[in-house]
Amino acid sequence: MNTKIKSSFSERAFQTGIIVVLSLVGLLCLFPFYYIVVVSFATPAEFRLGGLLLFPKAWTLISYEYILSTKAFVKSAGISGFLAIVGTVASLIATSTLSYGLSRRRLKGRKLLMLMILLTTLFNPGIIPGYLVVKELGMINSISSLIIPVLTNGWYVLLMKGFFDSIPPSLDEAAHIDGCNDISVWFRIILPLSLPSLAAFGLFYAVGYWNTFFTAVLYINNHERWPLQILLQNMLIDSSTAMGVNALVETGMQNIPSETKKMAAVVISTLPILVVYPFLQKHFAKGAMVGSVKE
């Protein structure tokens, strides 16, 4: 039996209005990035004409060639890539193993550890105590200072623990009866079951490490160890200083406007996350929400 409910004219008009408003908001949010991409591909002569550049008459890669030919940018991109890969793997190992341990009732001191982790989500020790700890550990101007202090996140630990709580203990017991130890149970049974959750939190960690900025400002004084976001900030202030005083002369690209170079650098620094995101997006809802609702 067909039981379609006909919507009134006012309801259809309201829904249409909502769609129009949200579409306009979406376009306004996308326009700045579109403008950045357009300017990065514009020729120096066309950019110098001034005005709002919506679509260049001629497209060129000269700004990208300049950015990728400078040692400072390539080195900073390598540092950010190292942080995103090594830091994400280390954070996932620390977060998942800690969450799994807390989900097992046989762990001694489980409630005390849970309380300590919960306190980290409520209270922040502050900038100065964190800096003093990093300094006393001898990690100033070290890449490790951008990974170890933010190795795990209390909120992610609690969410992952909720997921591991949904795995019945009988599964562990059956594996132990078959001769598996705790490490074998983790790698052969628990880890494959938690791949959606690891994919979601892995992307969160990767974005955080790739966009490392504030901790680098605090702990990295050597410009040769700047991650990409620090270099971009300095480029916005003074591109010739950030990229090297002699970079323009060495590459023979003295006539490139600084604005097109900045836009090209922003596009290059954003591209890796945009490329990775579609492949992991399908895991977001399942991975981030799993364990947060009790069945």
From TrEMBL:
Pfam families registered for this protein in UniProt: BPD_transp_1 (PF00528)
Keywords linked to the UniProt accession: Cell membrane, Membrane, Transmembrane, Transmembrane helix, Transport
Major localization listed first in the record, in broad terms: membrane
InterPro entries the record matches: MetI-like (IPR000515), MetI-like_sf (IPR035906)
Subcellular compartments: Cell membrane
Membrane topology qualifier: Multi-pass membrane protein
Domain ABC transmembrane type-1: 77-280
Transmembrane spans: 12-37, 49-67, 79-100, 112-134, 146-164, 263-280
PANTHER family, per database record: ABC TRANSPORTER PERMEASE PROTEIN MG189-RELATED-RELATED (PTHR43744), POLYGALACTURONAN_RHAMNOGALACTURONAN TRANSPORT SYSTEM PERMEASE PROTEIN YTCP (PTHR43744:SF9)
Family from the record: Belongs to the binding-protein-dependent transport system permease family.
UniProt name for this protein: Carbohydrate ABC transporter permease
Organism name: Paenibacillus baimaensis
